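chain below, 443 aa
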Amino acid sequence: MVRQWVRQWAGFTVAVVLTGFSPAQAAEATVPQATQAERAMQRQALAKFLTPANYDLALHPATDQTHWRQVLWSMTLLQPTDIPAQQVLTQLLDLALTPNPGADLQPTLVQALKTGAALYTHPVQPNTRDSYRFVRDKLQALLAVSRNPGLVSLALATLARDPDAPDLSPWLPGLKTRLPLWFLDTGLRTTIEDLELPAAPLPPLVDLLRQQVTSLPSLYLLCRRDRSIPCLALLKDGQGHFYRSGEGVWHINLLARSIYPLAWNFNSGETPQGLLRLEGTILRTPQEFRAFGQFPSVKVFLPNEPGAMQFLPGVAATTPIDLGIYRSLWPLSWQNYRPVEQSFWAGKLGRSLIRIHGSGENPELFYPQPIDLPNPTIGCIGALEHYSPDGQLQQADLPRLLNAWNELQPGGMTGYLWLIEVPDPQGTNQPVNIQEIEPVLPT
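prediction:
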């Protein structure tokens, strides 16, 4: 079934063709949930969870996963710095230090570690980091005593992103002794390898830009190592030509940063580098507006992730993909470049449900001042979607992607995503720009 979906705002009409879905609701040029008043009410609703009564572990044991998921999510978004908030996070992190925390505690402890990591290493306001410096001490204590591979891996990956943390290499020998089968745990193994293996130079970018898996279109996402810097997105058709508009090579910025400062090998961590499959879109309901915005999300699949019709060209998705097959999809010069194996191992670890989507959340939850950037996601790829205080759409980049893809492939969205990190040798802290890439684009 092919439906044409039309949205209109600011005097422009955007038509997006979707395949396999029922007709979408009419677009809203003004979205009530995006108004300043509604966003203030949302903040108040989140703040209701941040009270001493809700922090009381006697009233709400850490095994009450539903309660603590909401409390810790509210802490992540609102970033309270009051003493009761610091105390309850300390108590939860202390539970992670016990010799054998039960499986019923694990979800709450993992979420507490994620929240602590966000408050300490991704603070919206600088004083938040000072209030949660104890998180670093707790993470180091966890490295010294824990026998839980998942918690150890999370602590290692968080500390690796802390510019003030000491060198982690002295911790690794003792950790491997305490966890002698560490290499059998894919999450812990890949975390340690990321710390131990030397960084390799980027292979020739021109080879990757020329690569064709099939005659399907491809989306290239060229990022910096610092994922708070947006990535440059380019489109290539099935014949190997980069899509051009009236202004030259078509491009937009997307953000591959997670709310949580976690690596690619964690659920809700940053989007992994590598080759991923694009297959279809999902219409979003008004109830999903804050999380996903009002435009269809693009479905992204990792190798061996259930749900895709196929990852390899012409091969059913139920056919397993091994590392050798995955490497063969890359140019010869890239096949031994370890960072692009992230998507393969992320699929082995069970990561899933990566999407390219907008966001109806208030940007003030993520940025200390107004800024022309997409909101961070929870492990997905974010597209800019900004609203005025009265809820009117000001800018949205996801329709630009959907419309450009429809020019290349009318009536559907099936192809590939190449996501890589491009070095910033000048240390500009600026995104990869089109002028930097145009000289190596295939003609």
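Confidence is low (pLDDT under 50) at residues 1-26. The radius of gyration is 22 Å.
thats it, cya
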